[in-house]
Amino acid sequence: MKNQNETPLLDKNEFLSYIGGTLVMTAFLVYVMEFV
C-alpha cells in the first residue's frame, strides 16, 4: 500500500479509459456506417 504502487494504477486507469473511449467511438462509427 505504498504511493509507488498507486501511481501505475492511475496510469493504467487513464490508459484503459482512453482505450475504452476509442473503442466506443469506433463501434459507434461502424454502427452508423452499417446502419446508413
Structural class: mainly alpha
Number of domains: 1
User: In total, how many beta strands?
Assistant: 0
Q: Estimate what percentage of residues fall within beta strands.
A: under 5%
Helix-strand sequence: H
The major beta sheet can be summarized as: none
Q: Quote the average pLDDT.
A: 82
Shape by Cα distribution: rod-shaped
Q: Please give the radius of gyration in angstroms.
A: 16 Å
Q: pLDDT under 50 segments (min length 5)?
A: none
Helical content, roughly?
over 70%
Count of helices? 1
Distance between the termini: 51 Å
What is this entry, summarized?
It comes from Bacillus cereus VD154. The chain crosses the membrane at residues 15-33. This protein is mainly α and 36 residues long.
Description:
With 36 residues, the chain is mostly helical. It has one domain (1-36). 92% of the residues lie in helices and 0% in strands. The chain has one helix at residues 3-35. The longest helix is centred in the middle third of the chain and has 33 residues, at 3-35.
